[in-house]
Design a protein that fits this description.
Structural class: alpha/beta
Helix content: 25-40%
Shape: globular
Length: 691
């Protein structure tokens, strides 16, 4: 009888313990509180978290608007009633999100040295209240550029506080939840620069839910991984993905077997040993509960192909399309074609598409396809001909990823952080549809496209950083050899600004991949637009300033009135020449036509020397055209030019003492200087001509 009573007591005690709700305290500032939400009680992130956790959890909101982590801040959290209530709650789980208000100039500049100590004391207070509690601290939600103090201090102090929070996580040995990442590229969800709308609070709730439970939705890989893909040869391959926290992940390809364990943030990665070109292989990625198997995988060369409409220009639109498409079947060339959900034509988009664009759902789902008439027809002509040249020359598989968007300015492809911290480009984030740092046509087309929006903050393909967030970031880490780029038409109105934008773009992408990727780009062609000679020469000079870049000249392939010339095979192959010469050891392949190196003035003549000028001549057997010289007055006149050895001698009876020389200085270029491979010379002017 006594034994039975004891067993019943133990059963009832155990049942009461396990039936007790887990108490969850959400500690924080106005973001936790739910400031500005129309239905705060329902939509604040703690309330949405409670619904995600479901029964068995008692989630309480202890957020206080304006609260600082700093005890000497203007509104210390530790002095608020919400803090006292949170301590009294003696939670089992505590989630702390503080720091945003510490960016106030009243706080961080004066008391930054006390931040770590104050945070550790706060953590200890909750541990005293419940020695068995588990504590998470959070990287802060974003503060966007529209904040009134963004450039005057908030931007920089925010970054410093973020680093301090990460330090606290390590010192206190508490997990760190990243509340910045999910909202960072969604400024539309932070209308006042700080406080998320209900959808944004939902993103925070899901982020916290995953961190608390370890449930990240199971095994996942980026969408670019798929059947028929090409993986980069002869380099260590870092494969990354998501799984539930603590899950063991096994990766197999060929004879390689690698293992990893998903961290507290759900992330895992393995590093595959370099592989030689070949295949097909099967890549399997498995956990105990799920398996991803990618079939018909080849190992070869992978290039990212991007830009605006001349890169998007399809094979079916290009000269020689019929024959090229008919002969395109080649299983060793694989294409990953990222087409936009909506095109930036002169139309107004419908409200459904506008909503999807705000959610960064810009590109349609893509899949890897072998080169064949049905896949090549709609693929980028420049990219295809580039890839075909590599495939033919290297005799290895080639993978091409294309995500070009017609009309897009270069700024749209630069990551937000680079723009925010750039001394010049940060200003492009402000009121971009009214900002004359962006071309008039770009802004006008965007306003037409979004005319039907009902949203307070509408996103668009041309918005600075938008195409990075939707088209580059999803590819981040996928192993590539390099980049080819054809863009500039939507930046040609401001040569000087583009000289800032383009290096920032290259740096942005190289930082994303963590290596100095080769970056080969197309110089703008010829058309009757007055700014283009200046722009073409600027592009030439940039190729000499930015390491590991090369420029393909296309001015001989242009059209007087059509911004989309159709001779794309030559463009793709000229890009291919750079890659073969620089990256694949084909030193016998001339990478470019003559590129201006320097000039010497003597005996009333200009003697111009060129890189890649071997065998210089005119392309049509006629006299060399479009050379001009000027004296001190910089008033250029047409000049006679002849090849003398490895130089071009330029003279004019009108200029006795020349000091300046230029070539191809006309919007629609009729210059005819080529080298022995028939490759055209670039527009140039000697550096003294600064006008």
């Amino acid at each position: 009888m006594m034994r039975t009573s004891i067993l019943i007591f133990m059963f009832l005690w155990a049942s009461s313990v396990f039936a007790r709700e887990i108490k969850v305290a959400c500690v924080g500032n106005s973001v936790t509180y739910g400031y500005l939400l129309e239905n705060r009680e329902r939509d604040c992130y703690p309330s949405q978290l409670a619904r995600l956790l479901g029964e068995g959890y008692d989630v309480r909101n202890f957020g206080k608007s304006g609260a600082t982590l700093l005890n000497k801040g203007h509104r210390p959290y530790r002095k608020q009633q919400e803090f006292r209530d949170a301590v009294a709650f003696a939670a089992d789980w505590v989630v702390i999100h503080l720091g945003l208000n510490d960016t106030d100039p009243r706080n961080w500049p004066h008391h930054r040295d006390e931040f770590v100590r104050d945070y550790l004391q706060l953590i200890d207070t909750f541990r005293v209240a419940n020695p068995d509690c588990r504590i998470w601290i959070c990287r802060m939600t974003p503060i966007t550029n529209v904040h009134h103090r963004f450039k005057s201090g908030t931007r920089d102090w925010y970054e410093q506080i973020q680093k301090a929070i990460e330090h606290v996580s390590r010192v206190a040995d508490v997990p760190l939840i990243d509340l910045q990442e999910g909202l960072y590229n969604r400024p539309d969800l932070l209308p006042d620069a700080l406080h998320p709308v209900a959808e944004g609070a939902g993103i925070l709730a899901r982020t916290v839910y995953s961190a608390l439970t370890g449930d990240y939705g199971g095994l996942q890989m980026p969408a670019v991984y798929g059947d028929n893909m090409v993986l980069q040869r002869e380099k260590a391959l870092v494969l990354k993905g998501i799984a539930n926290s603590g899950e063991k992940v096994s990766v197999e390809i060929g004879k390689q077997k690698k293992k990893a364990v998903a961290g507290a943030d759900g992330r895992w990665q393995v590093v595959l040993d370099p592989m030689k070109a070949g295949g097909p292989y099967e890549l399997s990625v498995k956990t105990a509960g799920k398996s991803l198997v990618f079939k018909n995988v080849l190992i070869g060369e992978v290039w990212l192909c991007s830009g605006q409409s001349n890169m998007a220009f399809m094979v079916k639109q290009a000269a020689g399309a019929k024959e090229a498409i008919a002969q395109s079947a080649n299983d060793r060339i694989r294409l990953y074609d990222m087409k936009p959900r909506v095109y930036t034509n002169a139309v107004s988009w419908d409200t459904t598409d506008l909503l999807l664009l705000n959610r960064l759902d810009h590109y349609l789902p893509a899949s890897w396809k072998s080169a064949a008439p049905e896949s090549v027809r709609d693929f980028s002509a420049v990219a295809y001909y580039f890839g075909k040249m590599l495939s033919d020359s290297l005799n290895v598989p080639v993978g091409l990823i294309c995500n070009a968007i017609g009309g897009a300015p270069a700024e749209a492809f630069i990551d937000r952080r680079t723009l925010e911290f750039h001394p010049v480009l940060v200003d492009e984030l402000y009121h971009w549809t009214k900002n004359d740092m962006l071309q008039d046509w770009v802004r006008e087309r965007a306003l037409l496209n979004v005319k039907n929006t009902t949203l307070k903050y509408q996103r668009h393909s041309y918005e600075p950083s938008y195409l990075y967030a939707t088209g580059i970031l999803p590819l981040a880490g996928f192993p590539v050899k390099g980049v080819i780029w054809y863009q500039g038409e939507s930046n040609a109105q401001n040569v000087e600004l583009h000289e800032v934008v383009f290096p920032a773009l290259v740096e942005s992408w190289r930082n994303t991949w963590g290596e100095q990727l080769p970056f080969y780009y197309v110089q703008l062609s010829s058309i009757n637009r007055p700014s283009w000679p200046h722009f073409r020469d600027s592009q030439r000079r940039l190729s000499a300033k930015i390491a590991n870049t090369g420029m393909a000249v296309s001015s001989d392939l242009g059209h007087r009135t059509d911004v989309h010339p159709v001779r794309k095979r030559e463009v793709g192959e000229r890009l291919g020449r750079w890659a073969l010469h620089r990256d694949y050891g084909f030193k016998q392949v001339m990478p470019s036509g003559p590129l201006y190196r320097g000039v010497e003035f003597r005996n009333g003549a200009a003697y111009v020397v060129f890189d890649y000028g071997k065998g210089m001549k005119s392309s049509d057997g006629q006299a060399l055209r479009t050379f001009e010289i000027a004296g001190e007055d910089r008033l250029f006149v047409p000049a006679e030019a002849v090849v003398v050895g490895n130089e071009v001698k330029v003279t004019s009876p009108e200029v006795k003492n020349p000091k300046y020389v230029r070539y191809g200085w006309e919007p629609f270029c009729t210059g005819n200087l080529v080298n022995e491979d028939g490759l055209p010379a670039s527009t140039f002017r000697n550096e003294g001509d600064v006008f």
